[in-house]
């Protein structure tokens, strides 16, 4: 799970950087909010999820983690596409943006619940001690 979050985060980084560079080259910043969301929800959030799940593999193995993964990876692109279409074509795409945004939020809330359940101070201390002994 952690590896997939990190790999996909790298793809989002590339998309966000290319989009930003393209906007700068053509001097059209209509898609600035899409650029910002791709970098935040795609690159930064996905990388953080991947690192957290790497350091807490027990949390990565849960059903909540799997649902979070799929909600985030299916609906962040839908949300970004619908925002881009709203900005460039028609406000008629607003309902798609709203629904996809809500599904991303639900995924993030599931991530939070998962961490609150799976990661506790005792578990973190045990993992830290085992790394010190083995390292």
Describe the protein in words.
This protein has helices spanning 2-26, 32-55, 57-60, 63-88, 94-118, 121-134. With 135 residues, the chain is an all-alpha fold. Helix 1 (2-26) packs antiparallel against helix 2, helix 2 runs antiparallel to helix 4 and helix 4 runs antiparallel to helix 5 (94-118). The chain is elongated. The two termini are 24 Å apart. The relative contact order is 0.13.
Task: Summarize this structure as a short list of keywords or feature phrases.
6 helices; 87% helix; 135 residues; mainly alpha
Topology summary:
Blueprint: H1 2-26, H2 32-55, H3 57-60, H4 63-88, H5 94-118, H6 121-134
Runs in which pLDDT lies below 50 for 5 or more consecutive residues are: none
- Gyration radius (Cα, Å) is 17 Å
Element-level helix/strand string:
HHHHHH
The whole-number mean of residue pLDDT values reads: 93
Number of strands: 0
């Amino acid at each position: 799970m952690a590896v997939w979050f990190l790999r996909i985060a790298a793809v989002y980084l590339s998309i966000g950087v290319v989009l930003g560079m393209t906007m700068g080259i053509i001097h059209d910043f209509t898609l600035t909010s899409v650029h910002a969301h791709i970098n935040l929800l795609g690159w930064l959030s996905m990388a953080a999820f991947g690192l957290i799940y790497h350091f807490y593999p027990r949390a990565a193995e849960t059903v909540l983690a799997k649902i979070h993964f799929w909600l985030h990876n299916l609906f962040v692109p839908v949300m970004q596409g619908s925002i881009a279409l709203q900005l460039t074509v028609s406000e008629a795409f607003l309902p798609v943006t709203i629904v996809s945004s809500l599904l991303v939020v639900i995924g993030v809330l599931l991530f939070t619940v998962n961490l609150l359940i799976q990661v506790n101070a005792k578990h973190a201390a045990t993992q830290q001690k085992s790394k010190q002994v083995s390292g």
